[in-house]
Structure to design on (854 residues):
C-alpha cells in the first residue's frame, strides 16, 4: 500500500486531479465569492498568463529578458488606443493585438536574440525603454503620463463576472497552447538549448531560429495578457512598461520554480496576493519583496514547485 | 550656446564616470553585475542631505561630509558582500542578478522610510558658490569640483591598478579568476575590499551629485539606466571604456534635449542598442571567446 | 567507394601558435581511420575545424564534392558529419531517452512541431539505437546519473542519432576500464563494418589504435608526420622516434 505513493501513475493521477479541481473552482468562482474577489482573481489570471509567457523564455529556453513588459504594454495600449481613440470595435481591436504582439516581438527578437546572456538582457531592456519612450511621447494617442482611462469594452465583457469569464477562458486556451508547446518536439529543443546550446548545434539545429521563435511566442502571449488586463481595468498606464512590473514577474517565476511548467502559476498567484495585501498592511512592500527575493535566491533557488518536485523524486528513490 | 551644452554634458559625463568606475571595478573582479550600485549612490545622496545639517558651513566640513558618506557607503558594501554576495558566487548569473535586484528594493524602501517621498535639495557649499567664466560661458564653480573629482578618481584608479601590488591582485582577479584563486592570496577578503571600494565610489558620486539636482525616489532607476548605457557603450570591464561611454552619454543627453526634448532619453538607448548590434563587447571592451 | 572527406592545406593558428599547419587529409568512404599524436599535436583542433566549430585561417575542407570550409556547425552536421566529444557533452538534465531523441527530431524534420506530445514520437528509432549502444536499462535515467562509461556510450548514441555518414570521435576510450574499452571498440567496428559508417577517431591508447584502425594518420605539431596502415606506421622510423617508444 505504501508503494502506491511511489508509482509514477499515481503521481500523474493526483496531478490531474489537482489541476482539474483548481479548474473547476475557477469555473465556479463568481458563484462562490464576492465581486471584489472575482476582480482580484481576474487580475491574478492575467498575471499568471503573463508569467507563463515569460517563463517560456526564462525557464524553458534559458533566456533572461528584461524587456518583456514591452509586449504587455503594447498589447494593452494597442487595444486601448484602438477602442478609445479610433473607436474600433472590440473584436477587431483584439485581433490587432494579436498582430501587434507577433510583429513587435519578431522585430525586437530579431535584433536581440543573436546575443549572449547579459547583452541579450540589456538589449531587451533597452528596447523596452525605447518603446516606453515612444508611447510616452505620443501624448495625443496614448495620454502620455496620464495613461488611458474609460476604455470602452464590448458589453458582453463589461461586467465583473463576464470580464472574469472572458479573461479566464482566453487564458485557459493560452495556457493549454503553452502546455502543448512545452511538451512538443519544439519544446524539447528549447529545453536542450537551455541546457547545452553547443550540443544542439552539433545536432544540426540552428539555435538562433529557436530562440527567436521562443521570444515571439512569449511576446505574442504577453501582448494578449496586456490586452486582457486593459479589458479588465478599462485603462492602460505607462507603468505596464516598467521595470517594477518586470521584476515582479521575474520574481513570480522564480518563486514558483522556473524549471516547471506550473511554477509561474503558483508564483504569480502569490505575488499578486502579496501585492494587494502588503499594500494594505505596510507601506514598505518593496523592502518585504526585496527580502523575499533574497531568501528565495539563497534558500530555494528552485522555487516552490521545483523544490517539491525534487523532494518527490528523492522520495521515490 | 553650443559650448553651454557641451560643458554641461561634460559635467554629467564626469559624474557618470565616477559612478561607473565603481561598477566596472566590481564587475571586473567579482564577475557580478551589482544592480544595487545606483541604489548605493542614492543612499549616499540622502545621507549627505542629513549630514549637511549636522555640520556648519565651510570647506573642511564639506569634505568631511564627503568622506563620511563615502565611508558609510563602503561599509554598507562590505555588509552586502559578506552577508549576501558570498553565498551566490557559485550560483547562476540569473540568480545573482535577481539577488542584487532584491537589494535595490530594500534600499529604495530604506530611503523612503528614512526620508519620505518628497523631494529634497542640498545647496551648493558656500565656498564653491561662485562661478567662473571660460570661453564666454559662465559655469558654477561647483561643477569644476566634479570635473576634478573625476580626474582624481581616474588617476587614482590608474595608479592603484598599475603601480601598486594591490592593483596586480585586482587585475589578476579580473583577467583570470580561476588562476588567481591558486595564487595563495586571500580571495574572499580581496573581494570584500574591492566591493567596498566600488561601493565607496558610488557613495562618492552620490555625495557630489547632491547640489546638482533635487533628490527624489526615482534617482536610482534613472542612474541605473544611464549606467547600463555607459558600460555597454564603453565595454563591460573597461575603465577607459567607462570614461568614453560616460562622455558620450553626457553629450547625447545634453544635445538630445535640444533636438527632441520629450524623447531625449531615447538617444542614449539608441546608442546602446547600436553598439550592442555592431560591437557587443563595447567600443573599448574585449570580446570573450 | 570514393573519398568522403578531404582537407587541402588546412591551417589554423592561435596567436603565434600554429595548431594545424597545411594539413592534407583524405578519408575514404567506409574507412576506419585513427589520428594520433601527442597532446597539442592538433587532433582536437582538426575536428573543430572539420565540424565548423572553429573557422580556419586558410585551406579547404571538402565533403563529398562540396566545399564546407566556412559552413556553421548545424549545417555541417546536417550534411552528415557527427561528433563525439572528449569531455562528456550530453544534456545532463534530460533523460537518456530525451538526449537521443533530439537529433532524431531534426532528421525526421519534426523540430518545428509545436503540438504533438514528444513522448509519442520516434519511439522505435530511439529504443533501437539505445539498445545498440547497450543503454536500454538506463533509458529513463537522467544523464547526470550515469557512470562515466555509460555517459560515453550516450555520447555515441546522440552522435549516431544524427544518422551520420562520418563519425568523428575524440578519445572514445578515455577513462574506461579494459572491458569497457573492448566493448566500445567492438561497437565501433560493428558500426563501421555493418553500416559502412566512416569513422575518424583520435586516441592515446596505442593498443586500441593498432587493433582497430585500417589506416593511421600521425600528427606532430599540427602537421602530418606519417600516414599509412598500422604495419607501415609501426615500422616508420620517425614515428617510432617520436611516439611509439614512449608507449610500448
Amino acid at each position: 500500500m505504501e508503494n502506491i505513493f511511489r508509482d509514477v501513475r499515481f503521481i500523474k493521477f493526483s496531478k490531474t486531479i489537482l489541476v482539474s479541481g483548481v479548474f473547476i473552482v475557477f469555473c465556479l468562482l463568481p458563484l462562490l465569492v464576492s465581486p471584489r474577489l472575482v476582480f482580484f482573481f481576474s487580475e491574478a489570471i492575467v498575471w499568471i498568463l503573463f508569467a507563463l509567457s515569460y517563463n517560456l523564455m526564462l525557464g524553458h529556453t534559458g533566456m533572461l529578458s528584461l524587456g518583456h513588459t514591452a509586449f504587455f504594454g503594447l498589447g494593452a495600449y494597442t487595444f486601448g488606443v484602438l477602442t478609445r481613440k479610433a473607436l474600433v470595435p472590440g473584436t477587431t481591436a483584439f485581433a490587432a493585438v494579436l498582430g501587434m504582439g507577433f510583429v513587435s516581438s519578431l522585430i525586437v527578437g530579431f535584433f536581440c536574440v543573436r546575443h549572449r546572456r547579459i547583452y541579450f538582457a540589456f538589449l531587451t531592456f533597452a528596447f523596452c525603454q525605447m518603446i516606453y519612450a515612444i508611447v510616452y511621447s505620443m501624448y495625443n494617442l496614448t495620454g502620455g503620463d496620464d495613461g488611458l482611462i474609460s476604455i470602452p469594452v464590448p458589453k458582453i465583457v463589461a461586467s465583473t463576472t463576464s470580464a472574469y469569464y472572458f479573461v479566464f477562458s482566453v487564458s485557459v486556451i493560452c495556457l493549454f497552447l503553452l502546455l502543448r508547446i512545452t511538451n512538443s518536439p519544439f519544446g524539447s529543443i528549447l529545453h536542450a538549448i537551455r541546457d547545452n546550446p553547443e550540443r544542439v548545434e552539433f545536432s544540426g539545429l540552428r539555435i538562433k531560429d529557436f530562440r527567436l521563435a521562443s521570444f515571439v511566442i512569449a511576446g505574442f502571449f504577453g501582448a494578449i495578457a496586456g490586452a486582457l488586463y486593459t479589458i479588465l481595468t478599462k485603462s492602460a498606464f505607462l507603468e505596464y512598461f516598467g521595470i517594477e512590473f518586470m521584476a515582479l514577474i521575474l520574481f513570480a517565476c522564480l518563486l514558483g520554480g522556473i524549471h516547471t511548467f506550473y511554477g509561474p502559476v503558483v508564483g504569480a498567484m502569490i505575488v499578486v496576493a502579496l501585492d494587494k495585501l502588503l499594500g494594505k498592511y505596510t507601506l514598505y512592500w518593496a523592502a518585504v519583496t526585496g527580502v523575499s527575493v533574497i531568501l528565495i535566491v539563497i534558500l530555494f533557488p528552485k522555487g516552490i514547485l521545483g523544490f517539491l518536485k525534487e523532494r518527490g523524486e528523492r522520495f521515490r528513490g | 550656446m553650443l559650448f553651454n551644452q557641451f560643458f554641461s554634458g561634460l559635467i554629467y559625463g564626469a559624474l557618470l564616470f565616477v559612478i561607473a568606475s565603481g561598477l566596472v571595478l566590481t564587475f571586473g573582479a567579482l564577475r557580478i553585475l551589482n544592480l544595487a550600485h545606483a541604489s548605493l549612490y542614492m543612499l549616499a545622496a540622502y545621507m549627505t542631505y542629513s549630514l549637511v545639517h549636522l555640520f556648519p558651513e565651510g570647506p573642511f566640513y564639506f569634505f568631511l561630509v564627503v568622506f563620511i558618506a563615502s565611508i558609510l557607503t563602503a561599509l554598507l558594501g562590505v555588509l552586502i558582500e559578506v552577508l549576501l554576495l558570498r553565498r551566490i558566487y557559485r550560483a547562476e548569473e540569473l540568480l545573482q542578478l535577481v539577488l542584487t535586484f532584491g537589494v535595490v528594493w530594500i534600499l529604495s524602501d530604506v530611503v523612503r522610510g528614512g526620508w519620505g517621498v518628497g523631494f529634497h535639495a542640498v545647496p551648493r557649499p558656500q565656498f564653491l558658490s561662485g562661478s567662473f567664466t571660460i570661453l564666454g560661458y559662465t559655469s558654477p564653480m561647483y561643477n569644476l569640483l566634479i570635473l576634478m573629482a573625476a580626474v582624481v578618481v581616474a588617476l587614482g584608479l590608474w595608479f592603484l591598478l598599475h603601480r601598486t601590488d594591490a592593483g596586480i591582485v585586482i587585475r589578476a582577479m579580473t583577467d583570470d579568476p580561476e588562476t588567481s584563486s591558486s595564487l595563495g592570496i586571500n580571495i574572499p577578503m580581496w573581494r570584500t575590499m574591492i566591493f567596498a571600494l566600488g561601493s565607496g565610489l558610488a557613495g562618492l558620486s552620490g555625495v557630489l551629485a547632491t547640489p546638482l539636482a533635487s533628490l527624489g525616489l526615482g534617482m536610482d532607476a534613472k542612474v541605473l539606466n544611464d549606467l547600463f548605457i555607459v558600460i555597454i557603450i564603453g565595454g563591460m570591464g573597461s575603465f577607459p571604456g567607462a570614461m568614453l561611454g560616460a562622455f558620450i552619454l553626457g553629450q547625447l543627453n545634453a544635445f538630445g534635449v535640444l533636438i527632441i526634448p520629450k524623447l531625449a532619453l531615447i538617444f542614449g538607448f539608441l546608442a546602446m542598442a547600436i553598439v550592442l548590434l555592431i560591437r557587443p563587447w563595447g567600443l573599448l571592451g574585449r570580446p570573450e571567446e | 567507394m570514393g573519398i568522403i572527406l578531404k582537407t587541402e592545406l588546412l591551417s589554423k593558428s592561435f596567436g603565434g601558435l600554429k595548431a594545424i599547419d597545411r594539413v592534407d587529409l583524405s578519408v575514404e568512404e567506409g574507412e576506419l581511420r585513427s589520428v594520433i599524436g601527442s597532446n597539442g599535436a592538433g587532433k582536437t583542433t582538426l575536428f573543430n575545424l572539420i565540424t565548423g566549430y572553429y573557422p580556419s585561417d586558410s585551406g579547404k575542407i571538402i565533403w563529398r564534392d562540396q566545399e564546407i570550409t566556412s559552413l556553421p556547425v548545424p549545417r555541417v552536421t546536417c550534411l552528415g558529419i557527427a561528433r563525439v566529444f572528449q569531455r562528456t557533452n550530453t544534456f545532463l538534465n534530460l533523460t537518456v531517452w530525451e538526449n537521443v531523441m533530439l537529433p532524431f527530431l531534426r532528421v525526421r524534420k519534426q523540430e518545428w512541431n509545436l503540438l504533438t506530445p514528444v513522448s509519442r514520437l520516434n519511439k522505435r528509432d530511439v529504443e533501437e539505437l539505445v539498445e545498440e549502444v547497450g543503454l536500454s536499462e538506463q533509458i529513463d535515467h537522467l544523464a547526470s546519473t550515469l557512470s562515466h562509461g555509460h555517459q560515453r556510450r550516450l555520447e555515441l548514441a546522440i552522435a549516431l542519432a544524427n544518422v551520420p555518414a562520418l563519425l568523428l570521435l575524440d578519445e572514445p576510450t578515455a577513462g574506461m576500464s579494459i572491458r569497457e574499452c573492448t566493448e566500445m571498440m567492438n561497437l565501433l567496428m560493428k558500426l563501421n563494418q555493418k553500416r559502412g559508417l566512416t569513422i575518424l577517431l583520435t586516441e592515446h591508447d596505442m593498443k586500441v589504435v593498432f587493433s582497430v584502425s585500417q589506416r593511421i594518420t600521425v600528427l606532430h605539431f599540427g602537421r602530418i608526420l606519417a600516414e599509412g596502415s598500422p604495419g607501415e606506421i609501426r615500422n616508420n622510423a620517425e614515428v617510432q622516434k617520436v611516439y611509439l617508444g614512449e608507449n610500448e
Summary: The CA atoms of residues 74 and 199 of chain B lie 5 Å apart. Chain B has a mean pLDDT of 86.
